[in-house]
Design goal:
With 429 residues, the protein is an alpha/beta fold. It has three domains: 3-69, Elongation Factor Tu (Ef-tu), domain 3; 72-334, Rossmann fold; 336-423, no CATH class. It is built from twelve helices and 19 strands. β17 and β18 form a beta hairpin. The longest helix is centred in the C-terminal third of the chain and has 23 residues, at 339-361.
Length: 429
Amino acid sequence: MEKVYTKIESIVGNVVTVRASGVKNGDLALVGDSYANVIKLDGDLVSLQVFAGAMGINTRDHVKFLGRPMQVSYSEDLLGRVFTGSGVPRDNGPELSENMIEIGGPSVNPSKRIVPKNLIRTGIPMIDVFNTLVESQKLPIFSVSGEPYNQLLARIAMQAEVDIIVLGGMGLKYDDYLFFRDTLEKSGAMSRTIMFIHTAADPIVECTLVPDMSLAVAERFALDGRKVLVLLTDMTNFADAQKEMAITMEQVPSNRGYPGDLYSCLASRYEKAVDFEGAGSLTILAVTTMPGDDVTHPVPDNTGYITEGQYYLKNGHIEPFGSLSRLKQNVNKNTRNDHRSLMDSMIKLYAAYKEALEKKAMGFMMSDWDEKLLKYGNLFETKLMDLSVNIALEDALDLGWDILADCFEPNETGLRSDLIKEYWPNKEN
């Protein structure tokens, strides 16, 4: 039931305060002609964050409470479209108002979930071979400003073997938004993509709505039997927006000024990842930039407790050390019988290459084994770690065997003799 009030008590920044009853936190309202969100309740004193800003609003404007939280339209018409954080079309297309669903609902009952068991192919060897992405997994991409994490997300959006991509951008530079849009359009992937984009110039409250918008739509498509991949960038911007809102609400700050419920804010979004029995799945990959490359910063620190591993994007590639997909063993046993053994052996040899590299840098005498490791490390980095490499999982495994055969004798790899007999390349041809 809509309630209308005609007296605004105060206007501070983009927050207006009105005395009202029967209002719930998160409810939507109209302040004049502008949408606003209830962000604080103090008795009958209600604080609302105005999406478009409070400029032009005066204390005599009407405040109409709509009696419901934010909603988004759900239908096939969403595919190929771009919206703002509040669901308004950004692509000059028609506004969608049919089949409205609420955002920010609870996560799925654990009894309705099934154990993740299917891989998502991306064409990126450092993911497919070494830290396989599994359906219904929730993984962050830890990185720092300046790294090509948005380019990595765009590649995954183009290449991932899923039915639908939902891309949520938070605090993006306008150039980054155009990059995503143009790249997906040129590749033909836009037809299966839905974008909710908040740029740095948009109202801060819309930044906090992007994950909820993206995940509400993705969950409905998953329930309809689709395999959905949600790509979010950047969750640190989302957390910073939550911090700014908390300061506005005069909450007591916690670690580095972030709200005390930061963990819950992040967990309630990540826990939307699910594989439905008899239906589809929802998988989440979310960029989390680390200020100062500090993994103990509150946002990556809290994220690590929620998610099932992480990808570290550093120096332009996904790091073999530190990156971890805790669910990869669920699917590696079903890909190819050499997958797990080859992966372990190649990472072990790459660690030895790093030691040989340090030895060379310090001027120590290099042995024949060290020279083999240096050759191996160079091939590993150029043929597998480079983010421009785009090959199928089976081809990447074959390439791994080729790299080993170029650098070592079979007995130097530590691999089982039955696997060597089956997969070691025949160099005579």
